[in-house]
Design a protein that fits this description.
Two copies of one chain form a homodimer. Chain A has 458 residues and is α/β, with parallel strands linked by helices. The first copy, chain A, contains twelve helices and 16 strands.
Chain lengths: 458, 458
């Protein structure tokens, strides 16, 4: 098996395992107690905090350990919004943040707050200009991830932090995807991280709040972790998290170069090997190990299943694989194709041979899936209706496949209407038009679902 | 070293360690993913949920894993209060609940809710009658711990659950202290637990919500754990928690008998060996391994320090050891002496010799502390002022020590006033009077602090 989904969760780093096992004997007691076992636990906790703070680039008393990266985000956003309530009730997030940030924003909105969702470029990158425009006198907090979890695009965090600082607004950086590779540049105010993303154990997140940032922890009072992370400290896991972060950083520079070569190769070869593929995300400013592409006429879930059978574990932002059946909000915000989406995220240490094997297996796998779905090839376009394609009740990628089947029979200059009640069609039909050089005219209401109008121009 | 503070945190059970190590290799992936590593993680999680549910006595789909017992309590209370908001905004808790329950109640009050704190008997037990009285048409939730964490007293949970059920009010049981010993009896509605209390790893709590209880999870949406516990699942720790709960239960009946004999011996011997000691908590309905006593004229922090030097790790509910410097709310609610308080909580497997050694060391240790503080003995009562003892600016147990020094010189029938600005005096002076057979007249305002009036009756 080749595990290519490090962006979801990385296998435990050997140093994390060692540190965890070593501290199981020393770190189980309550660090608030004055007796020997408690003092030992406290020492381990303090040392881990120092190590983590050094890796993050902050003071130890600015960093607390939470039970997950998600908790760090929830607590960080809620704490700053409450602490700066007098300034105003406006929150800025990018449209491509992790769900923990976006769901925090929704809760804030439900409670009467105002949220600006900053759009991104087709590469997935937010712009400094968009953040500058979004800042208002009542802005309590701005949030921007260090790098995107689905497409790997790095965000202009240092630049956005500078603009926020000028406006006197704190910037919260969700650094879950990048913290293993290095500290976050720039004068951010709040930072969050997640240990299992860098090969640390599950159950540990980081929340860093710079001195001087107004912060009011929400929820019931709890004295642990400076009142910012309720519940008994998970010290063995915290020790393992800090130790593995240091260990990974020692290897990070060299490993980043190596993984970047491997993902560059995937970026270059996949479009050569597989027809009708769009590689997404910024080609240069991106995480070393992440590459994402979408395949026309492919159902993401089936593709993942076939790749799993072939020995590759990858994930997908396709509508058809997520449990909520809505297309990835990241791909949607970027305006790129969401169907047949595959994210490859290589863990440190991935052998080059595994990547070669992936490239050798992928074309046939995609072909198999396309054949199952009856996707068009040059020989198989079958015309069913000149002007209307009825794809009601059919899930992505069927509506696009049906469209592709008839487009050859539409006179140049004429239009075809695709009826669909699948939410993903709204994203995928325009994306298909852009990839195919056809004109997307727009969406019209229909009795059921919507009608998507496409003009054949070539 | 003898570690006698299992009620704070228990050393890792050997089965927990084995299960943790075994599942580090299998349980790190995202259980929501469809590929092989994800499916393996999901299987481990499902199996752990089944095992934990069986031990608790609930359905697997009623149980979620949280990141700590505290989180389980916070989420459980907030979820039921929100789910039953239409019924009303009244919450009932006992006065001796864990701080996670009481702090949840405070947050609810700050948000406009009403809270009834049910008083307890001098044993620490709540009564069914008090709960029955507290129930009102707008009661959304009642909470009662299965057993008290500071004095070990078991609560009449099954009886209170029956009364609540009659009134249509769900009962939340914080079972953190008892879950290792057996399932909670009675028809409770919500139950919480904490793995590190039974020898499982840190970082795992349980939240059980019976089918049919209206529950609305609070905070940002998160799909994991039925939407009731945000953040990536800590599967190796969850597996270890479930495995150690099963293992502990297999030994529980026999070990409970053995530990109860040891704590019975402490209960009987300490008052014989040490003068001016009050053993607190219910002598019969109590946890097997917990025994708590308070020593007059002793500073809890110094006593703990001396016991630590002698090789014993215990904790204390005394005002002088907690970080907030207020006396234990549990001892206060019971109306018992809080000074020089010691809680002995034996972990399973504690050798009888360790208990004997504790009993042999304790008397001298207490004497040493009393001598340091200049506590009264029959020969050293020095009269300073007939009617007023000025203990302003002095911390517990000094005010009581000063009182004891002069009482011999107060004519029988006359009163003495103790001036004190230490919060603990409000609890300890009446408790001293009860132990000494003197009459506590009451508290009067003074220029600084309060004046506590005591009449010598013997």
């Amino acid at each position: 098996m080749s595990y290519f989904d490090a962006a979801s969760s990385a296998p435990l780093h050997p140093v994390a395992r060692q540190a965890l096992q070593a501290s199981l004997d020393e770190g189980w007691a309550d660090p608030a107690r004055l007796y020997r076992e408690g003092r030992r636990a406290r020492m381990l906790l303090d040392a881990a905090r120092e190590a983590a703070a050094e890796a993050v680039g902050c003071r130890a008393d600015e960093l607390v350990f939470t039970s997950s990266g998600t908790r760090a985000v929830h607590s960080g956003i809620a704490g700053v919004l409450a602490g700066r309530r007098r300034v105003g009730r406006h929150l800025i997030v990018s449209a491509v943040e992790h769900s923990s940030v976006l769901h925090s924003a929704e809760v804030f909105e439900a409670d009467g707050g105002a949220v600006t969702r900053v759009p991104v470029l087709r590469t997935g990158a937010a712009t400094v200009e968009a953040y500058r425009e979004a800042l208002a006198p009542d802005t309590a907090l701005a949030c921007l991830q260090s790098a995107n979890h689905e497409v790997g695009t790095e965000q202009p965090v240092a630049e956005v932090a500078a603009v926020c600082r000028e406006a006197g607004v704190p910037l919260l950086v969700d650094a879950a995807q990048s913290l293993g590779w290095g500290p976050v540049a720039g004068e951010w105010s709040v930072l969050t991280g997640s240990a299992h993303k860098w090969g640390g154990p599950s159950g540990v997140g980081l929340l860093v709040v710079r001195k001087g940032v107004r912060f009011a922890a929400q929820g019931p009072v709890d004295e642990r972790e400076s009142g910012r992370a309720a519940g008994f400290e998970n010290i063995p896991a915290i020790v393992a998290a800090a130790a593995s972060l240091r260990a990974l950083r020692a290897e990070a520079a060299a490993e980043a170069v190596r993984l970047r070569e491997l993902t560059d190769r995937i970026r270059a070869r996949v479009p050569e090997l597989v027809p009708d593929v769009e590689v997404v995300g910024d080609p240069v400013r991106r995480l070393p190990g992440v590459v994402t592409f979408s395949c026309l006429y492919v159902d993401g879930e089936t593709l993942l299943h076939e790749l799993d059978r072939a020995g590759f574990s990858v994930s997908s932002g396709s509508s058809c694989t997520s449990s909520t059946l809505t297309p990835s909000h990241v791909l949607r915000a970027m305006g790129v194709l969401s169907e047949g989406n595959v994210r490859v995220s290589l863990p440190p240490g991935t052998p080059a041979e595994d990547v070669e094997r992936f490239l050798s297996v992928l074309p046939e796998t995609v072909t198999t899936v396309r054949e199952k779905l009856g996707a068009p090839t040059s020989a198989t376009v079958v015309r069913e209706d000149l002007l209307v394609v009825d794809a009601l009740g059919k899930r992505c990628p069927i509506p696009v496949i049906e469209l592709a089947k008839v487009i050859g029979d539409v006179p140049v200059g004429a239009t075809v209407r695709v009826l669909s009640d699948d939410e993903a069609a709204r994203l995928d039909i325009p994306a298909w038009c852009e990839m195919r050089g056809q004109e997307y005219v727009g969406e019209e209401p229909a009795d059921q679902g919507s009608a998507y109008v496409v003009r054949r121009v070539s």
